[in-house]
Amino acid sequence: MKTEIVSAVRAGLAFSGSEADDPSQTGATALVTAESSGGCAKAAKLLREGEVVALPTETVYGLAADALNPIAVARIFEVKERPRFDPLIVHLPRREALDEIAIVESQLARDLIEKFWPGPLTVIFRKRDVVPDIVTTGLETVAVRMSAHPVFCEVVSAVNRPLAAPSANRFGRVSPTTAQHVLDELHGRIPLIVDGGATEHGIESTIIRIVDEMIELSRRGPITEEMLHPFGEVREHTPGSTITAPGQLPTHYAPKTRLIVVNRLPDFSATPGKRAGALSFFPVGGVGNPGSPRPATAATTPDFASVRYLSERGDLREAAANLFRMLRELDAENLDLIVAERVPENGIGAAINDRLGRASN
Ligand code: TXA
Ligand code: MG
Fold it and tell me: pTM of this prediction?
């Protein structure tokens, strides 16, 4: 598996630097492939020195720093322009490190970890004192996961410390699923991006906590409700009035272009003179080259200047993997409006619809 994902890395990207667009940030960002000599070793060295670097995970690219070094973690907030009240996920170097940073009280949590780690499941626990307040933004809890991505694993193992890593985008924007997306968002602000190719799942990890021996879902993701259900009762977290986690804000993960969500594209009628783009699950009865943008077909998409299909074969996992890339592509087309069609609500579809809802603005 390790070889498979790493072999998807594009060649020839080693050390293409670029200048900062923010005059206060003058560094250059190096983009290295995980395969290039010492890409992971260079990342590990920078992390040990208290720097932040972007790394691929199986969900989205993360902006990593040593979770036990508050100054390094402060850089994450600066680079992302993230508000200091939005806590970070801590990624473990190995399973046993969990008990060093968190208090695990529930057997159900241990069973879930046993099943889904390493992988795209984040679990919220009571934290231990060793975790700096800046990581959890003063909360008594810490969100923890263990990535399965070979590049991330290699780097975090080499550092041998937990890494705090939010998605490697500027605050409020769509999460990056390729190294190029990270470069587009953060060039000049961080010293290094390790390119591990496009991420597998394409949306952020599922976040849960165990409450009264029930699984409370606070962010939908690749580990679906159906996958959690065999372990116990699953219920949706309803955000309390005291803590607001921006990932749970109604508007988040937003493109710059106005986006609306509809149940069916054919029900949408365009405003004359306005250019709209469509994001659809799959072409019902459509024809064309898989994966490529193409002109609207009269049957399904009468009014659109541009159309993207999340999955030509109607596969929800593929749709999730394409979601953020296609949102970025449509966002780059200078449209007046993006019209996104809801996908079926089963499996990872629920997480896709959740992100579409938060992208609407
Ligand atoms: O897939 C992922 O989870 C990616 C990769 C890089 O690991 N990370 C990610 O991080 O999506 P971020 O920071 O973009 O989203 C983390 C979410 C935020 O909505 C944050 O509010 C929530 O996790 N969170 C973190 N710690 C929390 C805590 N102690 N209690 C409640 N929510 C927490
Ligand atoms: Mg994020």
Answer: 0.88
